[in-house]
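G., the chain you wanted modeled:
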Amino acid sequence: MKHKIADANCIVVKVGSSLLVDELGSIRRPWLESLINDVVECWKRGQQVLLVSSGAIALGRRHLHLKSGTLHLEEKQAAASVGQIKLAHAYQEMLASHGITGAQVLLTLEDSKDEERYRNAKNTFETLLKLRAIPVINENDTVATAEIRFGDNDRLAALVAKMVNADTLILLSDIEGFYTANPQLDPLATLIPEVKQLTPEILAMAGDSATQFGSGGMISKLTAAQMALESNCRMVIAAGKHLNPLKRIDQVATKTWFVPELEFET
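Predicted structure as tokens:
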């Protein structure tokens, strides 16, 4: 079965910090504009789209003139509060230029553990999508603790996909897909185009994030894949650094699809 983004009904897209923010701590506006153009194309096809976006801390630290390297927790929280408003404004501005309403939703993984909070978030997403708005979601980093340290927007994106019963989760990454080893360290690493089960062998192939801003790493992406597959949602890891990254997924062979068993049986 050939998987296509164009065939999806409901799509959750996770955008990593290293794609959205440059080395100087500024938004890569041409790239973000091309992503929004892809999102708008999906929206015009009648597809529901939700964006889970990292980048608030990376943006905010520059404007607060914080030092390079590891930040203290309170510095991360301060940077997030400054960066989040800049991030939300950029998304809102670009979506509005296409006549589309953007909505900001801040969550933590704790929202998945409390039944009432989970239900409220789910209802909010369903209402926004019914009204044809595009939610832009991020962790509530100003109050989060472990979530900041582990950079769990991959898992947060999978949680959102489960909340809205999405059929497609897209993780835009700094590499082309899932490899047998870290391709930045092992020249013999080969890309695996499709994964049906997260076997111990597959899990052993995961490595750590090697980018300046990204902190999720491949392990968190496999955790997200497990969550997606359990929700009968397919997931793709694809290169995000190119312009029009969503459109590109359907145009190139280099990506990795994680596909639930039920899809294989149909």
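Confidence is low (pLDDT under 50) at residues 209-215.

Shout if anything looks off.
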